[in-house]
Specification:
alpha/beta; 8-stranded parallel beta sheet; single chain
């Protein structure tokens, strides 16, 4: 079974965004990963609603929206307006997680929850059966191009065991420092979906990189 590949818009060329989005549309990419940063939850700012509206109009792939923000549920209507497939919120940013997950599902989107590198998988034990997706950060969120944290491979194994033990249908996604070598380790550990930024958009042949990641 091929892996889901979700190229990260954060690494695209914003001087020629339409060209990169057309490449994504042609490629075998399954989703387009969109990191929304507010400069508070993470030390960086990325995209606002005008850019995301433009991306949603041009991209034919389902949108995988990852909110690295405080008060993520304030963005529910905006993410829904993009016709996003997935709305992904951070465990660390959401006090009432069960309520938030229910609201995302009620809005017609897949509900995803992200864990930072220092947050253990066991924190999701009481909600894993409600989740459609879990995103494990394999770098500290906020910047592209960071070095992969090796312990993430073991976290993927732990999460796979939790999902299998509970009968959860959650997809395991990993984001940060993903390339052919780290992607292979993650795939063997049980990851279903790989977010790749620089490995895709920094390549001479990004479509070939996407195809290779899907084949892991």
């Amino acid at each position: 079974m091929s892996k889901i590949v979700s190229p990260s818009l954060l690494s695209a060329n914003f001087g020629n965004l339409q060209k990169d989005l057309e490449m994504i549309n042609r490629s075998e990419a399954d989703w387009l990963h969109i990191d929304v940063m507010d400069g508070v939850f993470v030390p960086n700012i990325s995209f606002g609603p005008p850019v995301l509206k433009y991306v949603a109009q041009l991209c034919t792939k389902p949108l995988d929206v990852h909110l690295m923000v405080v008060n993520p549920m304030n963005y529910l209507d905006a993410v829904k307006a993009l016709n996003a497939r997935i709305m992904n919120i951070h465990y660390e940013a959401c006090t009432h997680l069960h309520r938030a997950v229910t609201q995302i599902k009620d809005a017609g989107m897949m509900a995803g929850v992200t864990l930072n590198p220092s947050t253990p998988v066991c924190m999701l034990k009481d909600i894993i059966e409600e989740l459609d997706l879990v995103l494990l950060m394999s770098v500290n969120p906020g910047f592209g191009g960071q070095k992969f944290i090796p312990h993430t491979v073991e976290k993927v194994r732990e999460l796979r065991e939790l999902i299998d033990a509970t009968g959860s249908k959650a997809v395991i996604e990993v984001d940060g420092g993903v390339n052919a070598s780290t992607g292979a380790l993650l795939a063997r550990a049980g990851a279903d979906a790989l977010v790749a930024g620089n490995a895709v958009f920094g390549a001479e042949n990004p479509e070939a990189v996407i195809s290779a990641l899907r084949a892991l």
